[in-house]
Fold TBC1 domain family member 7.
Amino acid sequence: MTEDSQRNFRSVYYEKVGFRGVEEKKSLEILLKDDRLDIEKLCTFSQRFPLPSMYRALVWKVLLGILPPHHESHAQVMMYRKEQYSDVLHALEVIRFISDATPQVEVYLYMHRLESGKLPRSPSFPLEPEDEVFLAIAKAMEEMVEDSVDCYWITRCFVNQLNSKYRDTLPQLPKAFEQYLNLEDSRLLSHLKACCAVSTLPYELWFKKCFAGCLPESSLQRIWDKVVSGSCKILVFVAVEILLTFKIKVMALNSAEKITKFLENIPQDSSDAIVSKAIDLWHKHCGTPVHSA
């Protein structure tokens, strides 16, 4: 029996006896021991399985380009990242743009704006829509990543990925949502259309903010594994599964305003089940895409 077939056999066995994830963790550890990390294999793993929490930050940093594939360079590159973080932070303090009272997520935002050459003249300037997206993602990331340097870099590169790699795809997600909801439950979609709710659904919360502020971070990070590793289309299936999960409630609401308000504040206790079903739905319709939106 070859090494791959042995690994596949063990995966099936562990899953049958209730130890799903044990073999996956071992497989990831093997990938992470390579002298030069294989980006494509890490993407494939992240698309197929949830990342173990102890390795999530490392894998995200590699996939987002914060760290290079070569292990031997990680310590030195992170030292440069920390120095850059400290320099930008110091610059904001010198020009008195931030103080000890400035919330940490706002500090991250102003650091990002300064590095992008888009720092406003004053912190009192009104926020742009893109700033609201950054703050929502940074606030969620704070709950997932303990180290402030890691949190800033991952947030910054995650947002940059949304604005570059997924720039053309994100505006198409509402249409894809409508398409897949129709396939899963045409009656539910008809109800939304009858209430004129399709155009007023919280697409910005779902797709631009990637459900930050909508789902708890414990569920959110499993979705972001897929976004970081190459597919923002997972967001569509999370939205579809939210509608399917709360179908009875949504069908009982008869106005676009009520439907949207409910979907912006869904009960949190169903979130883990929603994400699991959404990932199954995503695999059902899309297989296991790699490097695709």
About this structure: Residues 1-19 have pLDDT under 50 and may be disordered. Residues 50 and 141 are 17 Å apart (CA to CA).
